[in-house]
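S.,

Sequence below, as promised.
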Amino acid sequence: MDRVALAAAIGVTAAAVAKELRRPVEERTWQGRIAGLPYDFRPPTLARVRAEYWDPENDALFTPHAFGVGYGVNLARLARLVRPLPPGE
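The prediction came back faster than expected:
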């Protein structure tokens, strides 16, 4: 099963890179969607990494990776989901 998941991850990543390389150089953005998954191959920034893993303003639990293919977990949203409610609420 691990080999199947690894092969799928490599295949989707290769497809995303191929999609970008098929475009003319001036039209390459190195970000988009492939097979329904977001990808972003631009150099990551602190702001994008933070938005992936800690964005209290975002209600999404899963956020696009700051670099690579797929999703990360918005830990701020997860914390709100698992935090017990104060007494009386």
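Residues 2-22 form the longest helix (21 residues).

Coffee later?
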